[in-house]
């Protein structure tokens, strides 16, 4: 199938599934679309002997186009930039330290906890993975997915400070998480004995700080260019922002720095919320409407692709036992990765009641984790069975995260709001 035909098919499915969800299911769009795509996938798989041609066609289609490449090379840059545009810069500044610590220390802590727990637990069900591969799973599953998290936050009512913490952490820990994954992947590929600590630190530093610097430079230049245009030609403003995203992604790939972090920083530069009046009007209203449309459309396509990925996953019963263990392990790792930093920060900073529970349960995983896991198929140094186990665990964690956590988080938000409306206000800095 040609690329244009594939895109056309995805858009048609997105429109059809969205209509069904809005009219009948009435679920949050990301959850509804993914469940419908998952239902279609299960129908194709279970009807294999009756619809052999359909099954072969679907399998060929999903393997013909590399999901990880589609997400990282095309969709992720657009989604992260659009998500960052919606953040309130002033509130983000107030929560900068919790966001920074959770996006770095929290991700690293969660990676180690998840990897170590998996290493000791899954041998009990007859599956053995080297510790480095368990850490690899911990790295790809630890960062929360900003696309899923931002889609969830739009439908909830919560304080602006907590919203900034959740959204800001998910955007930045995504970039950090990808860098941690690539670092551990390099160690696993070359062998622990062939990698020096200094090389690992250098790779991590260049990816992270290089991505932040690139995003700041392009964001600053783009913001001033938008001021020059001064809302007189909205079509040029849209082209400028498109050029920033596409050009920034290409430059990041060429320089081997973190593209996701660059996209987030660029979006913060161009965003209008929490800015002074002069900077707030740098881009016209049409620019934000355009990126909102891009965000919604690509979100729909992304979660349909997640639902369809089940067609190409290799199954063994033991893998699902491991996946069941992984769901509990990932929640525990997230709890530790959130509670340890926040408990330490509470010495000098006030955090409202239920903050740890909210941040733990709202840490949704999504397309980024699936894409990172699927990218392991490209590494010829890894045994196929190892990759299959990691992908099955990842996919089941993502499904649980989006469906169970996504559908129940509103109840926790309601408890948070109720508890903190009754609680006396603290004099400590918020």
TrEMBL record:
Keyword Cell membrane set for record: yes
Q: Which segments cross the bilayer?
A: 6-24, 31-50, 70-87, 99-122, 128-150, 171-188, 208-226, 297-315, 321-344, 356-377, 389-413
- Which parts of the chain are coiled coil? none
| Signal peptide range | none
In what way does this protein cross or attach to the membrane?
Multi-pass membrane protein
What are the GO cellular component annotations? plasma membrane
- Superkingdom field: Bacteria
Q: What are the subcellular locations of this protein?
A: Cell membrane
Which Gene3D superfamilies does its entry note? Answer: 6.10.140.1330
Q: Which GO terms describe its biological process?
A: regulation of intracellular pH; sodium ion import across plasma membrane
Q: Does the keyword Cell membrane apply?
A: yes
Any idea which GO molecular function terms this record carries? potassium:proton antiporter activity; sodium:proton antiporter activity
This protein's UniProt keywords = Antiport, Cell membrane, Ion transport, Membrane, Sodium, Sodium transport, Transmembrane, Transmembrane helix, Transport
Indicate the principal place this protein occupies in or around the cell.
membrane
Q: Where is the Cation/H+ exchanger transmembrane domain?
A: 13-414
> InterPro entries given for it?
Cation/H_exchanger_CPA1 (IPR018422), Cation/H_exchanger_TM (IPR006153)
What PANTHER family does the entry give? NA(+)_H(+) ANTIPORTER NHAS2, SODIUM/HYDROGEN EXCHANGER
Which family, according to UniProt?
A: Belongs to the monovalent cation:proton antiporter 1 (CPA1) transporter (TC 2.A.36) family.
Q: What is this protein called?
A: Sodium:proton antiporter
Recorded source organism is Fulvivirga lutea
């Amino acid at each position: 199938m040609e690329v244009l035909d594939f895109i056309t098919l995805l858009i048609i499915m997105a429109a059809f599934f969205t209509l069904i969800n809005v009219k009948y299911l009435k679920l949050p769009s990301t959850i509804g679309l993914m469940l419908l795509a998952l239902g279609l996938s299960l129908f194709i798989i279970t009807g294999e002997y009756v619809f052999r041609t359909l099954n072969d066609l679907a399998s060929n289609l999903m393997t013909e186009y590399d999901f990880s490449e589609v997400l990282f090379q095309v969709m992720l840059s657009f989604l992260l930039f659009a998500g960052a545009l919606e953040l309130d810069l002033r509130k983000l500044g107030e929560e900068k330290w919790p966001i920074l610590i959770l996006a770095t220390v929290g991700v690293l802590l969660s990676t180690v906890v998840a990897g170590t727990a998996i290493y000791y637990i899954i041998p009990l069900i007859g599956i053995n993975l080297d510790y480095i591969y368990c850490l690899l799973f911990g790295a790809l599953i630890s960062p929360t997915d900003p696309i899923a998290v931002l889609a969830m936050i739009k439908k909830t009512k919560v304080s602006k400070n907590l919203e900034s913490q959740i959204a800001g952490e998910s955007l930045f820990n995504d970039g950090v998480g990808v860098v941690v994954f690539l670092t551990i992947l390099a160690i696993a590929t070359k062998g622990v004995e062939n990698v020096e600590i200094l090389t690992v630190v250098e790779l991590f530093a260049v990816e992270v700080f290089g991505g932040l610097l690139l995003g700041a430079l392009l964001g600053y230049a783009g913001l001033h260019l938008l001021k020059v245009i001064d809302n007189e030609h909205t079509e040029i403003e849209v082209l400028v922002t498109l050029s920033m995203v596409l050009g920034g992604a290409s430059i990041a790939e060429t320089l081997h720095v973190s593209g996701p972090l660059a996209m987030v920083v660029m979006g913060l530069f161009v965003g209008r919320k929490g800015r002074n009046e002069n900077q707030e009007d740098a881009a016209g209203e049409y620019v934000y409407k355009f990126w909102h449309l891009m965000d919604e459309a690509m979100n729909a396509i992304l979660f349909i692709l997640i639902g369809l990925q089940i067609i190409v996953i290799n199954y063994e019963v033991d893998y699902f036992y491991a996946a069941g263990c992984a769901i509990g392990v990932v929640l525990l790792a997230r709890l530790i990765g959130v509670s340890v930093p926040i408990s330490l920060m509470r010495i000098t900073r006030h955090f409202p009641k239920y903050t740890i529970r909210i941040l733990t349960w709202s840490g949704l995983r999504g397309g980024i984790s699936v894409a990172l896991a699927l990218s392991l198929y490209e590494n010829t140094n890894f045994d196929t069975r190892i990759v299959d186990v990691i992908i099955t665990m990842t996919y089941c964690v993502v499904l649980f995260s989006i469906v169970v956590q996504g559908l129940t988080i509103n109840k926790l938000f309601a408890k948070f709001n109720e508890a903190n409306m009754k609680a006396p206000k603290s004099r400590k800095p918020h």
